[in-house]
Design brief:
The chain has 217 residues and is α/β, with parallel strands linked by helices. It has a seven-stranded parallel β-sheet with strand order 1-2-3-4-5-6-7. The longest helix is centred in the C-terminal third of the chain and has 20 residues.
Length: 217
């Protein structure tokens, strides 16, 4: 086991979207060597008891837990009062979110419904968004669980878009984070798997390490 992988394992994070299965996420994360979980909840369904619920997670000796919210254009201000970690999923409002100075992270660019052009992929990202993300210190998230589809054509499309977006982020020095962003605990992966996958996708070793460590924002 290389020193770099050992170092990653001591601080590795994952970002997940639990559906009353937080305990399962913590259990599997512990087995995978993940040290910190970010639980994201849709703020449209905000439960006032979530922060109280967090107290039950904090007793776990191996896993640190932080709570964040997936915000929308209408509820960003309210969400900010509940957590420092406000996240947006890519949509037609990406520029608004990035320039709002209210979100820390935006993810899911590769899932755009736009069709690829003949000689260009509709990857969801472009140089303008990357420059804005760099300027406003917004992190771009890569969701590897989207690649677990049974549709091979969809997987191929997502992989191509992800590789292009990684190239854009590295070119414009945009901070990135890698996470499962999954509702299913068994879709989380170990640092070995993630490092291998994103090396294939063209992300350099330093960026991979920075993208799966606990201090991403």
């Amino acid at each position: 086991m290389s020193f770099a992988i050992i170092k990653i394992m001591t601080k590795m994070i994952d970002i997940v979207i639990p559906k009353n299965n937080e305990g399962e996420f913590i259990e599997i994360a512990s087995k995978l060597g993940i040290k910190k979980l970010y639980f994201l909840y849709d703020f449209n369904y905000y439960d006032k008891n979530i922060n109280q619920k967090k107290l039950s997670f904090e007793n776990h000796e191996n896993i640190e837990v932080e709570i964040g919210f997936i915000g929308s254009q209408k509820n960003l201000n309210k969400a900010q009062h509940q957590s420092k970690l406000i996240v947006a999923k890519s949509s037609d409002n990406d520029r608004f979110f990035i320039e709002s100075k209210k979100i820390k992270l935006i993810y899911g660019f590769e899932e755009s419904n736009k069709k690829d052009y003949l000689h260009q992929r509709a990857s969801g990202l472009n140089h303008i968004l990357c420059e804005l993300a760099n300027k406003h210190n917004v992190v771009i998230g890569f969701s590897y669980s989207t690649l677990f589809s049974k549709d091979s054509q969809k997987i191929s499309l997502l992989m191509g878009r992800m590789m292009l977006n990684i190239k854009l982020c590295q070119k414009y020095k945009v901070k990135t984070v890698i996470g499962s962003f999954s509702e299913k605990p068994f879709e989380m992966r170990s640092p070995f798997d993630i490092t291998s996958l994103f090396t294939i996708f063209g992300m350099d070793g330093r960026n991979i390490k920075d993208s799966i460590l606990s201090d991403f924002y």
